[in-house]
């Protein structure tokens, strides 16, 4: 399955430009491990071997979270709690997806990764700020993924790209605060949520249950 999604991304990436950071080598290694576990009758959880993508601003160890800001390329040392929960359920991360610079806007564009196009009409926007995630899922580059939302950053691209997205009540899904970035409005960070995005409501429900489960 992971091979198929990687091939899909490589085939359509130039059209929608949804992928910011490709993590294919690691994904293939994890997929092989998942196959070996299945052969031995072992399951990692409800997302065993499922390929997913993650918004660029969300922490994944070994990758930067630039928020579209040039020079903010420090590699992160640990996963966001939401990412860790997906991994613990067996998910395999294929890539990080493009986001609007500073996550402020209803489109997806920044000077590092460029513009993400709407998969249904390449001349239109994918929405924002989680537009890379919305476009990747809609264009079958990922089964499901994570976005972030304060004032519509999951809901807008989900609507524009024809998929489903959920902004949970803040703090239901644990998340790391952004490193080295402050919101212009002090109260904005308290409204921020990480939430799932998927093509079907059933997938959205499963992801939310995994992400919000009390540890």
From TrEMBL:
<dbReference type="InterPro" id="IPR020556">
    <property type="entry name" value="Amidase_CS"/>
</dbReference>
<feature type="domain" description="Amidase">
    <location>
        <begin position="2"/>
        <end position="214"/>
    </location>
</feature>
<dbReference type="Pfam" id="PF01425">
    <property type="entry name" value="Amidase"/>
</dbReference>
<dbReference type="GO" id="GO:0012505">
    <property type="term" value="C:endomembrane system"/>
</dbReference>
<protein>
    <recommendedName>
        <fullName>Amidase domain-containing protein</fullName>
    </recommendedName>
</protein>
<dbReference type="InterPro" id="IPR052739">
    <property type="entry name" value="FAAH2"/>
</dbReference>
<dbReference type="InterPro" id="IPR036928">
    <property type="entry name" value="AS_sf"/>
</dbReference>
<dbReference type="InterPro" id="IPR023631">
    <property type="entry name" value="Amidase_dom"/>
</dbReference>
């Amino acid at each position: 399955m992971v091979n198929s999604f990687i091939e899909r991304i490589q085939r359509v990436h130039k059209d929608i430009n949804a992928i910011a950071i490709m993590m294919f080598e690691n994904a293939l290694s994890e997929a092989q491990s998942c196959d070996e576990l299945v052969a031995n009758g072992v399951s990692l959880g409800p997302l065993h071997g499922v390929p997913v993508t993650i918004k660029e601003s969300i922490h994944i160890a070994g990758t930067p979270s630039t928020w579209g800001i040039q020079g903010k390329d420090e590699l992160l040392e640990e996963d966001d709690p939401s990412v860790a929960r997906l991994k613990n359920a067996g998910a395999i991360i294929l890539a990080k997806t493009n986001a609007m610079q500073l996550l402020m806007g209803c489109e997806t564009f920044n000077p590092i990764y460029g513009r993400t196009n709407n998969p249904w009409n390449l001349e239109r926007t994918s929405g924002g700020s989680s537009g890379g995630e919305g476009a990747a899922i809609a264009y079958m580059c990922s089964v499901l993924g994570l976005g972030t939302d304060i004032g519509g950053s999951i809901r807008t691209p989900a609507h524009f790209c024809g998929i489903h997205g959920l902004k949970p009540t803040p703090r239901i899904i644990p998340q790391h605060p952004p490193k080295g970035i402050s919101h212009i409005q002090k109260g904005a960070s308290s409204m921020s949520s990480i939430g799932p995005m998927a093509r079907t409501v059933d997938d959205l429900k499963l992801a939310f249950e995994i992400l919000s489960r009390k540890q």
